[in-house]
Design goal:
elongated; 343 residues; 6-stranded parallel sheet; alpha/beta; 6-stranded mixed sheet; homodimer; DNA-binding
Amino acid sequence: MSTRTTLKDVAREAGVHISTASRALNPSTASIVNPETVERVAEAARRLGYRPHPLARGLRTNRTMSVGVIIPDVENPLFGPIIAGAESVLVEEGYSVLIGNADMGPSHADSLVEDMLERHVDGLILATPGRVVSEVARQAQRDASMVLVNRSVDDDSIPAIVGDDHAGIGLAVRHLRELGHERIGHVAGPSWVSTGKDRRDAFLDWMTTVGLDADIDLVEEAEWYQVEPGTTAALTLLRRHPHITAIVAANDLLGLGCYRAVRSLGKVIGVDVSITGYNDIPLLDLMQPPMTAVRVPYRQMGADAASTLLALIAGAVVSPGRVLLSPTLAIRSSTAPPAVSGR
Amino acid sequence: MSTRTTLKDVAREAGVHISTASRALNPSTASIVNPETVERVAEAARRLGYRPHPLARGLRTNRTMSVGVIIPDVENPLFGPIIAGAESVLVEEGYSVLIGNADMGPSHADSLVEDMLERHVDGLILATPGRVVSEVARQAQRDASMVLVNRSVDDDSIPAIVGDDHAGIGLAVRHLRELGHERIGHVAGPSWVSTGKDRRDAFLDWMTTVGLDADIDLVEEAEWYQVEPGTTAALTLLRRHPHITAIVAANDLLGLGCYRAVRSLGKVIGVDVSITGYNDIPLLDLMQPPMTAVRVPYRQMGADAASTLLALIAGAVVSPGRVLLSPTLAIRSSTAPPAVSGR
DNA sequence: GTACCTCCCGCAATCGTTTGTATTATCGGA
DNA sequence: TCCGATAATACAAACGATTGCGGGAGGTAC
């Protein structure tokens, strides 16, 4: 009783050979066995509560029904929804999710990839940052399917599910433009991260589109996607261009950094300077003032990544390149028409 | 080249039988094989880049070198650190971490437990809420080691690593008392969750300890650990006791709910009403005003849970019951001496 | 009546390890 | 010289599934 019921038990119970039982239980081979035998085996399996042993199966079939998800930092609220989204579609198909967080730097990410390959995951979802993937990751494509999420590689050689940064920045810039802003700055993310580069390019692009001059001087790059670097960047930006009335931040935390910078200059947010964030992490609506932010459908991003991964695993030919998910804009009170100049 | 190097290859390379190779590579059996043979095998293994196949090994040994972590909600910022802490010690020992999030309710948690058992995880870390564990979870103890984190069961029958809620609430109550508050209320979490009950009991206990009357009327239970229920609870509490000058919230989100309630009554936080949170989630210091909160060492909680789990797996007899981790208090500006009455 | 085909099913090998047992070689002691 | 103990290694059976192959039963066509 303490030992699990095995295929042999089912076979004995149904009065057939173990191989017949195997075929009967496997949907793709059930057709070559007598329908009523199938029924008898299925019934026996049900009665005995049979569960195939995943290790034994994996050993034979080289498929483990598990996929690895590698993220840069579990503690970043961004990745919760991504994981949840991916997991929801993967468990649906019977896959298990191995999570690895590479919070100790890119080399750690590589060793995680190797660990996972060693465990024979069927697929890999990479959410680690960077605009290029390491050699080991590239090699990994040989042994397992792979898709990127929330990042892409410069040459688009690996399928990637990303938010439409161009559209997202567009939402922010147009929103500010419609409010009447004309001097808009951008606190950018690190340029070695794909989102950092893309959003910055998009910002300059949209500035000209809405009829403002796309001065590279209006962009200041933060060292990292955190509050503190955001403050620093915003301060140098505001010192260089004191007449700026709005800032598009490449990230919510950078936006919060801008909050601090603006306050430290004695100005008031949403009046003297409007600020937009990006991602719309939780609690943003509880800030003072609540922050207007571009909302990215991260959960769906995870789900889509999982779906295309499953397609890849199933052998479908998925064209590499990016799938863009449309963002929306959550308008709150950190943005408002510019204060009347000269007042 | 495309096929991985197997033990057979190593054996051939070293000129020994496969079983000898196996023993040579396994530290616990290496003693029964000639030392220089061990060296030769090890050398061959190194040269060929041999990695044992985890599935094959698991099939034979019934150990998968993987543990499952089940959390109620990946998107809750609480669990990031717990996972990170657990993972950091587990990967160190060569274990992989399977994550399951039970965001679809307790029955889903059960099915996750079953999934993981089916995959033969060596251990299980449960962070799901509730003061009792389901029958399936209890059964699971037979097949795998198990420890609870951030929760406990009423009868303490399963080892649990939890924050010291009594001490934590004590920090908050004493802090407020020292500031001069005498009418302190408590917005409690759901009583069916262990932290909800524990913190509420602790609150009443500490009130008498610091010489205030522990009126059950000063406690209002929120339906769930979220902002909205917090607002509702705080409002009914403040309506019942308008003279309250401080609120101890059982959770940061409930605390933020209190923020809203207090504001909607036209009072100002940190002046008319002081508020303390619990957990100290990120961004709390960026709120207006920054919230004073009890900080729980979640990362260490995860790490400790993993350590005791490893001990259990190794066959150590771990006394069930709770291990308490000491919280600290992050004092910010949501707490201050009560406004002078009558002013 | 034989040949042939189809349909089911059983046999056995296989995936890569671990591990109980058998075998061989070596050596000390009587 | 021979025996028993000991050490080192080889053999083979597992673990629990999947799967190519072969074979028996039954039917049809000639």
